[in-house]
Design brief:
By secondary structure, this protein is α/β, with parallel strands linked by helices. Among the domains are: about 170 residues, UDP-N-acetylmuramoyl-L-alanine:D-glutamate ligase, CATH 3.40.1190.20; about 150 residues, Rossmann fold (3-Layer(aba) Sandwich). Helices cover about 35% and strands about 25% of the residues. The chain has a 6-stranded parallel beta sheet, with helices on both faces. Strands 14-17-16-15-18-19 form a 6-stranded parallel beta sheet, with helices on both faces. A 4-stranded mixed beta sheet has the order 3-2-6-7. The longest helix has 15 residues. The chain is elongated. In the N-terminal section; belongs to the carbohydrate kinase PfkB family. In the C-terminal section; belongs to the cytidylyltransferase family.
Length: about 475
């Protein structure tokens, strides 16, 4: 997958709420009624609803704005504080008197949800609030790469307002992606795409989706009736179906599923982010499947960062070699995150001018010592200092790309210094690996790594000998 370097401006409009959790234990039944008595140990609150979409976009690195309606209450103040925590402006929040800001409280006893209770208003917002939303949108519409409509059926995205938003966006060539609610999708007509799940698509089309034929009928119907540029249906563990000119099913890439909470929010946020980074729809869905794969491997409404997604893709051996080549700044940040997860980093370095079987076997052994192998690659300028003016044979970019394609190598970083000492200081590896010819010698960086291991080279295998054989062959000819 291509690098996603752009920080797009994405607007989220929809129903905001707070997901509130009370965590505790239960050791007895109440004498007053046949109910559990939960001893609450702690409580936590996170952004929910459209807020979870915002959290996902923020984690991906997008510039996020929000427009929504909240009540004049304490829950709204709590929600605003949560936005402050992720540096998302609350200027787009419109306060409507006598409205209850949505808050969903869950009582969890020994990791099991015992009870959920909601406090909220679900009536349509007032016409005045609708006008204010449109006013804010008209003022800033040209700055957005895309708009996400996160509809939880709590009254913000009224039928007339949704139609006006899509009309205004289309006039300004801004793509609208909508996570729909209900059975009637007419208010979303003209959007770039919708992201219903299979159950929602069945209800909206009255087509029982049970095979590829019925799936194509349903997804094509959604595209034609609601004038979508691209039609999508999420299929849970079976991936995502897409239809523009033809049906494709993009398989999921989840290894372990612990909790699917919020996966739909992750999908729509990821697709919007990828499209704004100029990926086509197939590439964007692949990216979204990877993000969802990260999220369902966590507990609760979770998010996925770009680093987590690329690391996950690499672990599935689906990433392109280019994504495994990191700058000095990127590898320093990435190494800190890997250490924070308790994973063991192995580091080695070298010129690797002409890759041969000895190199590959050496790297396979090095990788076996830990969880992540980071390879420091001597830049062309340092190779010349070490090997002479006729080297390297292959440029640093070519060498890095080939090394990054190896299954044993997780990341490659190019360094220009004569030694990798400063790079090792940035990475702080658990294990430093060098060739067996360093036996009894001082190894640069051994004072930083927790452990030094020496790996014997394969007899008769070296770049120098390969070059000599080539030169001899030319002479003999």
């Amino acid at each position: 997958m291509r690098k996603l370097d752009k920080k797009p401006n994405i607007l989220v409009i929809g129903d905001l709420m707070i997901d509130h959790y009370l965590w505790g234990t239960c050791d007895r039944i109440s004498p007053e009624a046949p109910v559990q008595v939960v001893n609450v140990k702690k409580e936590s609150s996170v952004l929910g609803g459209a807020g979870n979409v915002i959290n996902n976009l923020f984690a991906l690195g997008a510039n996020v704005d929000v427009i929504s309606v909240v009540g004049d209450d304490l829950v709204a103040n709590e929600l605003k504080d949560l936005f402050d925590n992720i540096n998302v402006s609350r200027n787009g929040l419109i306060v409507e008197k006598n409205r209850k800001t949505s808050k969903k409280s869950r009582l969890i006893a020994s990791q099991q949800q015992v009870l959920r209770y909601d406090m909220e208003s679900i009536d349509d917002i007032s016409s005045q609030s609708c006008d204010e939303i449109l006013g804010k949108l008209k003022k800033d519409i040209k700055k957005y790469d895309s708009i996400i409509l996160s509809d939880y059926g709590k009254g913000v995205l009224t039928s007339s307002l949704t139609k006006e938003i899509i009309k205004l966006a289309n006039e300004n060539k801004v793509k609208v992606l909508a996570d729909p609610k209900g059975k009637d999708y007419s208010k979303y007509k003209g959007a770039y795409t919708l992201t219903p799940n299979k159950k929602e698509a069945i209800e909206a089309t009255n087509i029982d989706i049970k095979d590829d034929f019925s799936l194509e009928l349903a997804i094509k119907q959604l595209k034609e009736i609601y004038n979508l540029e691209v039609s999508l249906i999420t299929l849970g563990e079976n991936g995502i179906a897409v239809f523009d000119e033809e049906l494709r099913i993009k398989p999921t890439v989840a290894r372990e599923v612990y909790d699917v909470t919020g996966a739909g929010d992750t999908v729509i946020a990821s697709i919007a982010f990828a499209i704004a980074n100029d990926l086509d729809i197939d590439e964007s869905i692949h990216f979204a499947n990877l993000a969802a794969g990260v999220v369902v491997g966590k507990i609760g409404s979770a998010i996925a960062s770009l680093d987590e997604i690329f690391e996950y893709e690499s672990s599935l051996h689906q990433s392109t070699s280019l994504n495994r080549i990191k700058s000095l700044e990127e590898i320093e940040i990435l190494s800190k995150k890997i250490h924070a997860k308790g994973k063991k980093i192995v580091f080695t370095n070298g010129c690797f001018d002409i890759l041969h079987a000895g190199h590959v076997k050496y790297l396979e052994v090095a990788r076996s010592y830990g969880d992540i192998l980071i390879l420091g690659l001597n830049a062309d300028i340092s190779v010349k200092k070490l090997k002479g003016s006729t080297r390297p044979i292959n440029s640093q970019d070519d060498r890095a790309y080939i090394l990054a394609s190896l299954e044993s190598v997780d990341y490659v970083v190019i360094f220009e210094d004569e030694t990798p000492y400063e790079l090792i200081k940035k990475i702080q590896p658990n294990i430093l690996v060098k060739g067996g010819d360093y036996e009894g010698k001082d190894v640069v960086g051994s004072d930083i790594a927790d452990e030094l291991r020496l790996v014997s080279f394969v007899d008769g295998q070296s770049t120098t000998k390969i070059i000599q054989r080539i030169q001899n062959a030319k002479t003999n000819n």
